[in-house]
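Issue 218. Parser rejects a valid record. Input:
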Amino acid sequence: MNWILVIEGIYLLIILGVMVRIIYDTQTVTKTMAYLLLVIFLPIVGIFIYFSFGINYRKNKLYSKKILEDKKQEKLVLEKLESYNLKNLEASRDDDDFLRLKKMIYNTDRSPLTTNNSTKLLINGEEKFPEILMELRKAKHHIHIEYYIYKDDKIGRAIEQILIEKAKSGVEVRFIYDDFGSASIRKTLAKRLRENGVKAFPFYKVKLVKLANRLNYRNHRKIIVIDGRISFVGGINISDKYSNASPDNKLFWRDTHLKIEGDATAILQHTFIGDWNYCSNEKLTINDNYFPQNTAPLSLEHSKNIQIVSSGPDSDRPSIYYAIVNTIQLAKKEIFLTTPYFIPGETIIDAMKIAALSGVEVKLLVPGSSDSYLVNAAAKSYYTILLKAGVKIYLYQKGFVHAKTLVADRAVSMVGTANLDYRSFDLNFEVNAVIYDKELAEELALNFEKDLNDSIQIDITAWLDRPKHIQLIEKIVRLISPML
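Output the parser choked on:
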């Protein structure tokens, strides 16, 4: 009996210790309460989940994204970056409703406002893949590719063939694949690339000893940089299922990607090199081959201002999260949001509610059916409070909408990899492009409105009349939403 009391006492001390750790280390009240409830009601399992998923990664960074070891050189680069950013901010100051957003992104992520950019919006894989294949064939010095999901299928092998051909012709080819999202290519396509001169490395390799933790922090970025001049970023991974032109694709896949030519490519290059230096044995640094200086200037009429904002376990703050919140706050007329996964947290919910109650037209497009029951249930638990505030919510019916886009006042837009969920804001490595251009914003808005034609708007009366037990299940799932 004494031994039982001793064991119970030790167990109680462990539980109390973990609870103190949660309160001390967790940044938000919502997440703190979720983990406390988990530890209390599922003690052993809850402790395991917390130490696997709940540790404050920003306090204990996985790595530093700095690509300069020389402090003196780093100081000079930061000074040039500051000067470049201030010059571009000054030029865009007149009649700029989103000047505060530009300043916030720079102060948060040290990502400058870039000018001299041209863009091309790519809708779905059938527009993205031919464009990528064309630009990869033109590469002369280097190709840098970083993807969460890369499949050994038709499009994956088509890109593989070009990468190998380029590597054999002397072009530097570097390839980062997420070791979880692209697990299927570890011993196949990735091996073939390495055998044929392509430098290929997994990001944060999954190891059995630290399996849960390593599954948690994933590189969700999709980046291609070619010769330091042309880049691609967005939501579309490398797989046949992302192209509706594929005869084997039974599900219509709606997604959005962006091609950039100009100064913003340098910021995506910086992001890639930071990731590369972490997961490879190389230490690439700044030079004119990776950051060319002689890009021909575009006319003011065609030049687009862009900021690249990245966040993850390599950043001090949730930069993408802040950018989305700030954009919603600054919008005066309309906000169009598209996301496949919607577990945004209280701040974004409040920002959307306040915007709608202030007369801003807020529209949210989400999948009609999700590939995750729990995520879908958690998302639905937020709909009622949004609908009551006047937010219009649409359920996509044509297939699965996987795009991650935002359009505000048809003046500023975002295209990137981050979903509107805790995982994208807190755990994954993500990257978004913020484009300050009315022409591109209008194009994205028109595509959004086109998608609404393939969607059903939620009727608030019918929504509130749903069975009470269904609503209760959704609210219960929301309690663990920070861990989904």
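Fixed in the parser; the record now loads. The chain has a mean pLDDT of 88.
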